[in-house]
């Protein structure tokens, strides 16, 4: 089986590929790295333009034409737009946070979303609120967005400083009664254990949810 992983930033790429290979041996994994959307979202104050949609369709179509049996998109910022692309493809597309909303609501109602990009926060918040409305659940969502850490990550800077920014910021939130801490991006998922030791509460990462979801697609 040919599995194409679509990334928009480099951090986390190798770790995610390695984990896919470890859990699903015997398949061919391809990485596609395209930072067009992240740069456009920043340049256009979060607006996902028609050009962004067209490029997403073109990239997914090209992977399908290259023989992909499955596409896995690891960028949370693309989550709101992938449903518009799926109907034009003949292969499944798994979004890294497809299972996020239901997983969060199972853990509690007071939630802190953690990310370095506002677009990732918007995507996660929208999904959780929609699922809460669908099932009639109450949910209080708070946000911790550190664009300074995002700038370091996107520029290929010192990831130790990126991590320090988040650990310090999360430490300041640990006593505010949150039931769930959500690491919304692949690029912060490696901090899960460190965050768990700080907050002593439920810590959710989107890659772990996605890897579990992939069991339904990769045999």
N-to-C series of helices and strands = EHEHHEHEHEHEHHEHEH
Number of domains: 2
Mean pLDDT: 94
Reported for the largest beta sheet, the result is: 4 strands, parallel
Strand content: 15-25%
Question: What is the CA–CA distance across the termini?
Answer: 8 Å
CATH class of the largest domain: Alpha Beta
Q: Strand tally, please?
A: 8
CATH fold title of the largest domain: Rossmann fold
Alpha plus pi helix count: 10
Which CATH architecture of the largest domain?
Answer: 3-Layer(aba) Sandwich
**Largest beta sheet: strand ordering:** 2-1-3-4
User: Outline, from the CA principal axes?
Assistant: globular
- What would you report as the Rg, rounded to the nearest angstrom? 17 Å
Structural description of this entry:
Helix 9 links the parallel strand 7 (180-183) and strand 8 (202-205). Helices cover 47% and strands 18% of the residues. The strands form 2 sheets. It has a 4-stranded parallel β-sheet with strand order 2-1-3-4, with helices on both faces. Strands 6-5-7-8 form a 4-stranded parallel β-sheet, with helices on both faces. The model has no long low-confidence stretch (mean pLDDT 94). 35% of the residues are buried. Helix 5 (100-107) packs across helix 6 and helix 7 packs antiparallel against helix 8. The protein has 2 domains: 2-96 and 209-216, Rossmann fold, CATH 3.40.50; 100-206, Rossmann fold, CATH 3.40.50.1860. It is globular, with a radius of gyration of 17 Å. It has helices at residues 13-23, 36-43, 50-65, 82-85, 100-107, 118-135, 147-154, 159-171, 192-199, 206-213, and strands at 2-7, 28-33, 70-73, 93-95, 110-115, 140-145, 180-183, 202-205. With 219 residues, it is α/β, with parallel strands linked by helices.
């Amino acid at each position: 089986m040919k599995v194409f992983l679509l990334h928009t930033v480099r951090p986390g790429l190798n770790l995610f590929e390695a984990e896919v290979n470890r859990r699903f041996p015997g398949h061919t994994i391809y990485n596609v790295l395209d930072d067009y959307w992240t740069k456009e979202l920043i340049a256009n104050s979060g607006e996902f333009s028609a050009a962004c949609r067209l490029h997403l369709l073109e990239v997914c179509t090209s992977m399908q034409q290259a023989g992909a049996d499955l596409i896995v998109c690891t960028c949370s910022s693309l989550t709101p737009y992938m449903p518009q692309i799926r109907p034009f493809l003949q292969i499944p597309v798994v979004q890294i946070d497809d299972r996020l909303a239901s997983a969060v609501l199972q853990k509690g109602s007071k939630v802190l979303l953690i990310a370095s990009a506002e677009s990732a926060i918007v995507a996660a918040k929208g999904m959780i609120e929609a699922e809460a409305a669908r099932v009639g659940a109450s949910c209080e969502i708070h946000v911790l967005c550190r664009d300074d850490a995002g700038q370091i990550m996107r520029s290929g800077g010192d990831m130790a400083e990126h991590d320090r920014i988040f650990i310090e910021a999360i430490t300041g939130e640990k006593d505010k009664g949150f039931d769930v801490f959500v690491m919304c991006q692949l690029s912060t998922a490696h901090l899960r254990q460190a965050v768990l030791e700080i907050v002593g509460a439920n810590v959710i990462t989107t890659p772990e949810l996605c890897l579990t979801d992939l069991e339904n697609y990769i045999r």
